[in-house]
Amino acid sequence: MNTIPKGFPEGFLWGGATAANQLEGGYDQGGKGLSTADMMTAGTHTVPRRITTELLPGENYPSHEAVDFYHRYAEDIALFGEMGFKVFRLSIAWSRIFPNGDEAEPNEEGLAFYDRVFAELQQRGIEPLVTISHYEAPFSLTKIYNGWSDRRVIDFYVNYCETLFKRYKGIVKYWLTFNEINILTMPLGTFLAGAMIPENGMELTNPDSSTDQARFQALHHQFVASAKAVKLGHSIDPDFKIGCMIAYMCAYPLTSDPADVLLAQQKDNIGNFLCGDVHVRGQYPGFAKRYFAEKGVELLFEAEDEQILLEGTVDFYTFSYYSSVCVSADPEQEKIGGNMSMGLKNPYLKASAWEWQIDPQGLRWVLNNVYNRYRLPMMVVENGLGAVDEVEADGSIRDDYRIEYLREHIKEMKEAIIDGVDLIGYTPWGCIDLVSAGTGEMKKRYGFIHVDKDNEGQGTLNRSRKASFHWYKQVIASNGETLATDPEAAAQK
């Protein structure tokens, strides 16, 4: 009873995370169809990405080449192996397997590509963690069905899952059904997560891009699809571990005013626990009913939906965590950015160049907050610092700011484990530089591995090791015990 963990458990899954649409490229190769991500233009911190319904000549679509993992996967996986990765989180591009999304039979050439990727990972002793749908639905589903607004897409998704589960039985153990599924609780999720055409403009960040009714109905369809996939996966291979993935929106009350405290709780409920509860508990929470009533949302349920949700609960819980914000009932407070959301400035925190507030202790709070509610194994599957990296004359990249960010978050994960949280893995976001989902930039870099490419799509695509590469290698080798910067390693290219 008095024994407490002293640190990261034996067998902890250290690694890194990516997404196909931000990494792979090869958008028109190997039989792949167009995805929703392929229709999004480049943007910047101040200029929003745009959605086009046709490919426009001369327009920069960053996903088309991304960082060319499609041709360089062996080189990249070798670098992951050099760092000592135990796990690599990647997504499969749905439109590489089913180009239009609604075909009966898969594209064999697309499956063969992932056969080769998984073989490389196996050779390096790296466990794949596969996200089945990560912001890249086949664009044909958008054109014909308006994406997840149409219930028929559930069956297309389940057919896709069945293909993957049968093909990769015995090869892939860990699966995530949807990336950051709770983004559909916000207007930004309309196209990005829901594959639906926005109603009021084609900018990705348009705040009035859809009705609550459309988004929450699409979210319900994804809940049903996820639950069906979990049940199907377990029937195909009882050893599968199938989890959910939430973009955790950590929001503190700005003051001790009860109105601020209540608002923070409401943000946590709708932004985070609505999706977590359906995935883990198999039913909508009570607070959702009031929220839907006040928003005029009337969800269309089929007779079997409640039972499907109850029978398709997940095996583990994963989430992204980058920053925190504050909330207040006072509308005059200063706003600041965050992952997919805006909030209020916290006077106790510093912020990145993209105005994401850096809050390592918030990660410990989130881990405890979620684990105390669900008591499931957890993974932090996205966490990292987007920053501008400078390449020195000798080719080195001294990203000490990234090391500091990650070090402090790893310290807080260790504290959460000592608190009693069952944390089993950590995959920092963008372990190799890739295209930003929110802005379409290359300038906003997260990786341990530098990719020579700029915002305009120019560069050699050559890979090189940053100082953080060598630092993370020693973190993994020591199972999270050696967190100091190694001056000699940091000085290497």
TrEMBL record:
One of its GO terms (molecular function) is beta-glucosidase activity. One of its GO terms (cellular component) is cytosol. Pfam families: Glyco_hydro_1 (PF00232). GO terms for biological process: carbohydrate catabolic process. SUPFAM superfamilies: (Trans)glycosidases (SSF51445). Keywords: Glycosidase, Hydrolase. The keyword Hydrolase applies. InterPro entries: GH, GH_1_N_CS, Glyco_hydro_1. It comes from the Bacteria. Belongs to the glycosyl hydrolase 1 family. This is Amygdalase. It comes from Saccharibacillus brassicae. The lineage of its organism: Bacteria, Bacillati, Bacillota, Bacilli, Bacillales.
